[in-house]
Design goal:
- It is a single chain.
- This protein has one domain (1-89).
- Helix content is 25%, strand content 16%.
- It is built from 1 helix and 3 strands.
- A 3-stranded antiparallel beta sheet has the order 1-2-3, covered by helices on one side.
- The longest helix has 22 residues, at 45-66.
């Protein structure tokens, strides 16, 4: 059965998209992209294909960053913790 193509990953376009291949995930965000997992780049054709897929995602991220006037650093926004009523009490 052929695999469905993954939707296009547009870096920094939203806070929901995730690009997966092998055991590596790129979690999109409007201010950052988080990488999770691991990826084995073996010295064979499969490893070459994984390396090319990795390069394609990283190239898209670099292209998106180069197209913007970037700040020196992303401002960190933290909210104070919210106290909620214990639902088990």
């Amino acid at each position: 059965m052929p695999r469905e193509p993954e939707p296009e990953f547009r870096p920094f376009a939203d806070d929901a998209a995730v690009r997966n291949f092998a055991n590596l995930s790129f979690e999109n965000g409007t201010t950052r992209i988080a990488l999770h997992g691991s990826l084995d780049l073996t010295r064979d054709r499969a490893g070459l294909e994984r390396a090319k897929a990795l390069r394609a995602v990283l190239d898209a991220i670099v292209t998106a960053l180069e197209a913007e006037d970037l700040p020196q650093a992303v401002a960190e926004t933290t909210r104070p913790p919210t106290i909620v009523k214990n639902p088990f009490a």
